[in-house]
Structures are given as structure tokens and as C-alpha cells.
Automatic annotation (TrEMBL):
PANTHER family, alphabetized: CONSERVED PROTEIN, GLYOXALASE-RELATED
Gene3D superfamilies per UniProt: 2,3-Dihydroxybiphenyl 1,2-Dioxygenase, domain 1
Taxonomic placement: Bacteria, Bacillati, Actinomycetota, Actinomycetes, Kitasatosporales
Source species, domain of life: Bacteria
Matches recorded under Pfam families: Glyoxalase_6
Stated name of the protein: VOC family protein
Residue ranges occupied by any VOC domain in the UniProt entry: 22-136, 150-265
Species of origin: Streptomyces violaceochromogenes
Amino acid sequence: MTDARGSAGPYGDPPARHAPGAPCWVSLMVHGLDATEEFYGALFGWEFQPGPQQLGPYVRALLDGREVAGLGRLPPDRHLPIAWTPYFASQNADLTAETVRSRGGTIGVGPLDAADAGRLAICSDPAGAVFGIWQSAAHLGTAVAGVPGTPAWNELLTFESASVAKFYRTVFGYEEEPVVSADLDYVALLLGGEPVAGIHGVGHALPRDRGPHWVTYFQVADADDAVDHLVHLGGQVLRPVHDTDHGRVARVADPEGARFALLQRPD
């Protein structure tokens, strides 16, 4: 990962309306919604309230009363991977979805209205990684950042970065900042000169049962304690806590197999 500078305003609050292309929401669709609420509520201190039901039962996770993420129940007839999905802000979801199609991506759901909250589409990039488009109305997206229990970064694990970065640049207008390294294929995606997401090309190291996919990093106060708690709650450690330039990180999965990362930022 790289540094997510500029993603939050004063006191950890993101801007009132997310800039086009900025990560603005993360959502997880599962089979056992009640058990998933219990898991993440215990892990991150989230509380829940009902959200739009266009795609089935759906709740918004709250941290100190402010919206952080969404959880929904998969329809029984939908055989989709259990995975956290980042949403990127758009001023016109229909136009952005059309650009996705024209650049080799696919639209799996929508564009459709989510009651009065906004308009969404769920897409796949040309390599198959799933992401969302969000055109806000009443619901602006994640309402707090920079504190434990909030999304801190989104990173795409894919085969190689160059062609996929070009796709996202065309769709969302990002600038690119490649990491110059002989043994690391990584591109940071920037808006207004500030990194907002990353693309990590890992070649054949991609999990065969997953393929290219986005990984959401959630901030925690203490990565080691959070991992111990996660295991106690029935989660799984995919890569133990390790030090990086950006803090202590662990790759983990929830009881249904949704993969994500825990990030303890440096003091």
C-alpha cells in the first residue's frame, strides 16, 4: 500500500461530498447478515441501522452515530464471491457506467436508484475485479475517517498494474504514480495530487479462488490486539501482522471468507 494522504478533513471527517473518483463507501454482501453484524460490531464497535433495500436486506454500519460501511444479504440465487466492494464517487452514475463498458469493463448491477440515497452500479474491471459507482443524493457515503473502525485505504490486487491502471484512469480521471522498483509492480492512483487508492500487480501470486480483487484496509488502534480479537470471533489470519512503511498490517478474513486488512498507523 501507499499513503492515503488527503482522504480526510479536519478531525478525521471526510469532505461533505466526495470528489468524483474518490473512494466514498465500502459494502459487503453476505449470506448470514445477522452473524456478520455481530462479527464486525464486536471487532470494530459498529452499530447498525436499516438502509435501502433495493438489493435485499441491507444495513449501514455506524461508528459513534456516523456512517462507515454497508452490509447486505445476498439473494439465495446469486452465487457471488463474499467480498468487500469499494465504491467510487461519480457525478453521473449512468455516464460512468457507460465509460466502464466502453473501456472493456462490465456492469453487473444497475445503474439503479437506491431509494432517495443515491444511484449506484456494481461493475467489474477488464481483469474481473468488482467495484461500485456511487452518485450521491441523500447519502453522501462514509462520514468519518482517520479513526479506528473506519476504512483507511483500498488496494487492487491484480495480475499486472499498467493496463488496469489505464482503465481506472480513463473511467475516473486519476493521475498515476508508479512505484519505481525492480521487484514491485505498484501504481498509486491520485486525485488532485493526493493518493486515494493503489493497484498492486502480483502476477501468479493471486489466489486462484479469487482472481483480481479489491482489498479494503480498516484502521485499528492495535493490530496485534485486533488480530487476536478477530480470531476469537471466528475470523482467519491470511498474513500475520507485519511492519510496513505505513504501519503494522495484517491480512485477514471474516467467518464467511471476506478478505480485508487491518492497519495500525504509525504513532
